[in-house]
Amino acid sequence: MGINLEYAGRSYPATAPYTVGREHLRDFARAVGAEHPVHHDVDAARSLGHPDVIAPPTFAVVIAQRAEAQLVEDPDAGIDFTRVVHADERFTHHRPIHAGDELSTVLHVDGIVERAGLAMVTTRCEITAADGAPVSTVRSTLAVRGEGS
Amino acid sequence: MSPVLADLEVGQLVGERTVELDRRALVRYAGASGDLNPIHWNERVAVEVGLPGVIAHGMLTMGTAVGLVGDWAGDPGKVVDYGVRFTRPVPVPDPGVATVEISGVVGAVDAEQGTVRIDLTVTCGGTRVLGKAQALVRL
């Protein structure tokens, strides 16, 4: 089965809130070599005006990929993950994510375009705080090779 | 201390860094990110899907590359936008390491918005592994 073009334009209901943990932010920061104290030391983060330790710029992918699973793991979408290559990724931060945030995500399938045996699937995750204020927008494109290519 | 927008010139180097990634670094990132795709830790699966071997998560390379931008800005929370294209995989040998070279220069200054765009060059073995890697910093 190939990719289901009818999924283009689809939006999903907001995910259940994701709680951002302080130790998780520290672990993620270590994993990407981010040694700046704002990710590790609460006092250092507060001295720069943040309520708690903040996430490195790409941490939002952790939250986005949970929302994207609604599409990627849906058998009817026809995305064979063994044929997927990550083509691009972009984060727009309205404010830094910090420990203690309760974040909900709405997944949008902005486009599915087929060309030359490749399907380019572009998604957008709109991540918002508990009060509804926008926090981050995560745009991602997956390139899915067609069968026999 | 944070850089001052008015002092910046397009083309100015803001930082350079060399990072060595081994299999342990990939497993650490898999755990921290929740991205458990076996092509980043299982040689058999990587080869079965047509890769030369285990490759680094693109998101690990992307996440590692932006560190020098946040450090230069004085607060990684000042990075308001960051995007890349994944142009080439980063194979990570075992035993051994993949050596990733990162450098950032001032790409554009927007005095009205109070932002500076940092253009990152990220290579492994002389090959660019990220394309159009740009971070926007609000100073």
Automatic annotation (TrEMBL), chain A:
InterPro entries: FAS1-like_DH_region, HadA-like, HotDog_dom_sf. Pfam families: FAS1_DH_region. Residues 9-137 form the FAS1-like dehydratase domain. Coiled coil: none annotated. Transmembrane segments: none annotated. Belongs to the UPF0336 family. HAMAP family: UPF0336. This is UPF0336 protein J4G33_11285.
UniProtKB/TrEMBL annotation, chain B:
GO terms for cellular component: fatty acid synthase complex. Signal peptide: none annotated. It holds the Pfam family MaoC_dehydratas. GO terms for biological process: fatty acid biosynthetic process. It comes from the Bacteria. InterPro entries: Fatty_acid_synthase, HotDog_dom_sf, MaoC-like_dom. GO terms for molecular function: fatty acid synthase activity. Residues 16-119 form the MaoC-like domain. SUPFAM superfamilies: Thioesterase/thiol ester dehydrase-isomerase (SSF54637). Belongs to the enoyl-CoA hydratase/isomerase family. This is MaoC family dehydratase. It comes from Actinotalea soli.
